[in-house]
């Protein structure tokens, strides 16, 4: 039997403590009860570039080989909005995203990663909204009464993306734990 892992490729971030503060401030601002949300743990904050789901270890080895050869330029990002999936009237996932200006270098890096994976016959979502999940709702969706699917944030937070990692997700009773399989450093 071939072993199977739950795998994704992520861009790593540094300002995790600041993101966690925004996470807690947002819960207060939206007047949410903690019992109705499941917070993403600080060590799990990242931008997902590609989510594979469960794949066998033979494909994983090929993905690691392809990603290990990627060269990309490190770049600065600015967080710029708070949003919700599927939308703000029935929010199940609340996230923080990038401002308009820094989405372009992020999307270029994402395209570079995706272009390395065209040989694989995997279902890969091509259009992603760059975001870090802050929390998920428990049981029922929330109506956040936002004016649109995302709201502009009232903060300025600058970070840097200089590494991408192939990660494995291990589910535990305390939540998911992410293990880096390989990390590639940008220039």
Verbal overview:
The structure is a single chain. By secondary structure, the chain is an alpha+beta fold. The protein has a single domain, classed as Cyclic phosphodiesterase (Cyclic Phosphodiesterase, Chain: A, Alpha-Beta Complex). Helices cover 22% and strands 42% of the residues. It is built from three helices and nine strands. It has helices at residues 16-29, 57-68, 100-115, and strands at residues 4-11, 37-39, 47-56, 75-85, 93-98, 131-137, 150-161, 163-172, 175-185. The protein has a five-stranded antiparallel sheet with strand order 2-6-5-4-7. The model has no long low-confidence stretch (mean pLDDT 86).
Keywords:
187 residues; alpha+beta; Cyclic Phosphodiesterase, Chain: A; 5-stranded antiparallel sheet; 4-stranded antiparallel sheet; globular
Trace the largest sheet across and list its strands.
2-6-5-4-7
The third-level CATH topology is Cyclic Phosphodiesterase, Chain: A
Shape: globular
Biggest sheet overview: 5 strands, antiparallel
Taking pLDDT < 50 over at least 5 consecutive residues as the criterion, the unreliable ranges are none
Order of SSEs: EHEEHEEHEEEE
Looking at this structure, what is the CATH superfamily?
Cyclic phosphodiesterase
Question: Which CATH architecture?
Answer: Alpha-Beta Complex
Helix segment tally: 3
Q: Which value, in Å, is the CA radius of gyration?
A: 17 Å
